[in-house]
Write a structure and sequence with these properties.
418 residues, mainly alpha
């Protein structure tokens, strides 16, 4: 039985050693229980720091865990702590990017970018792209929240939003990403940081122009259009300080809108003139001389037009069209297009007068007195109304060189001659 006893003693000694080793480890754990508790609290503390916005402390904890993983990565507890720390870091990254997607000022932008650099989540070029992408999302959301039911108010708010946001983003980008880092980025990635900003600004300005172009046709009054244009000019002047002058790009859009308002007013004048011709009775007219009004109304239309309701109605309609654009003709290059529209409207009115006498069922063919009144109306249109409207147009567009004559075009006059 001695061999069995010997084996039993050896097994006892081995078990005693294991118990002693375990006891030593337990004693060591007991002596370092405070430290172990602190290590186990790191994931919870890190998560609390991230949720409460204490990013400096969170980054310090993340760096501490990363160093422990480098030194003691073979220990299961340390690996678990590192995995939980990485999860909290990912949450912190999402929170920081979320801050860039709202309206923040330069100091906070600097802090956020500093945190992102400490996280080492992006290289320099990717960080620039991420910054511009987040700021673009912020502007897009701000624009999307605007109420576009009223075109006038919408254009003003849209312009204000882009004026403030574009100026802030460009200044923030230039302050955060210095020229030195831009040159390093270009040499490392083959892309210039400045060109990245320029590309983004071009994209955002293009979006703004598309919205303005789509909304301007819903502005039906010349005064409202002039007010919006002045607002946009102020925006362009402000953005010009950061190299984003939008005024030359906006001018053609407002020119088209102004011409559209003018054409619509002239079309209304033409429609009313044709309706007035259809309802005209062509009774005899008084012998009112073709003279200009005197006194305060010296620049008004000839008094002789009062005898001819259709011509007077047409003159009033064209004057309303002039009045719509009185604030815009001096700042927009619209003279030639307005002159073409006016000539087209005069031609339409002349054609309507001619068609009235040429109609087979026209009463003018059988009544000399009404025909004489009709001829007088034609002369009033050709000699008085048209001349007055053309001279008034010349005053409306003082910079016009040869776009409008003060006399009725020969082609139209030839149409009206018997």
């Amino acid at each position: 039985q001695l061999p069995s006893l010997r084996l039993g003693c050896e097994a006892f000694v081995k078990g005693a050693h294991e118990i002693a080793k375990a006891r030593t480890m337990n004693r060591t754990l007991l002596n370092n229980s405070t430290t172990m508790g602190e290590l186990l609290e790191i994931p919870k503390l890190l998560d609390a720091c991230v949720r409460n916005g204490h990013y400096d402390e969170a980054l310090d904890l993340e760096n501490f865990v990363a160093k422990m993983e480098t030194t003691h990565g073979h220990i299961g507890l340390i690996k678990t702590l590192a995995d939980e720390a990485r999860a909290s870091s990912a949450e912190m990254l999402r929170a920081l990017l979320g801050r860039l997607r709202v309206g923040i000022q330069l100091p906070e932008c600097l802090r956020v970018i500093g945190y992102l650099r400490r996280l080492s989540a992006y290289d320099e070029m990717t960080l620039r792209q991420t910054f511009l992408s987040c700021r673009e999302e912020y502007i897009a959301n701000a624009v999307g929240d605007l109420d576009d039911s009223n075109a006038y108010d919408y254009l003003k708010k849209l312009t204000d939003t882009h004026r403030v946001a574009l100026f802030d983003v460009v200044m923030q980008y230039r302050a955060i990403f210095s020229d030195e880092s831009a040159s390093d980025t270009k040499s490392n990635a083959g892309i210039d940081g400045g060109s990245l900003l320029y590309s983004w600004a071009t994209h955002r300005v293009s979006k703004y122009l598309v919205l303005v172009e789509a909304t301007l046709p819903r502005v039906y009054e010349g005064g409202a259009l002039a007010s919006v244009y002045e607002h946009c000019q102020y925006c362009g002047t402000s953005l010009a300080r950061v190299g984003l002058d939008t005024r030359p790009l906006l001018r053609p859009l407002f020119t088209d809108a102004a011409v559209g308002i003018f054409d619509a007013a002239l079309a209304t004048a033409g429609d009313e003139f044709e309706r007035a011709l259809e309802s005209a009775t062509w009774t005899s007219v008084s012998a009112t001389p073709s003279s200009k009004p005197e006194g305060d109304d010296a620049d008004g239309p000839p008094v002789s037009l009062l005898d001819f309701v259709p011509v007077a109605t047409f003159t009033n309609g064209v004057l309303l069209a002039y009045n719509e654009l009185r604030h815009l003709t001096g700042v927009l290059d619209v003279e030639s297009r307005l002159a073409a529209s006016l000539e087209s409207t005069l031609s339409r009115a002349a054609a309507a007068l001619l068609a009235l006498s040429q109609a087979k069922d026209s009463v003018l063919r059988h009544d000399e007195r009404k025909y004489a009144t009709y001829v007088a109306c034609v002369r009033a249109f050709a000699d008085d109304a048209s001349t007055y409207l053309l001279s008034t147009f010349a005053r409306l567009t003082p910079s016009s060189r040869s776009t409008a004559s003060r006399a009725l075009p020969k082609s139209i006059r030839a149409t009206l001659d018997p």
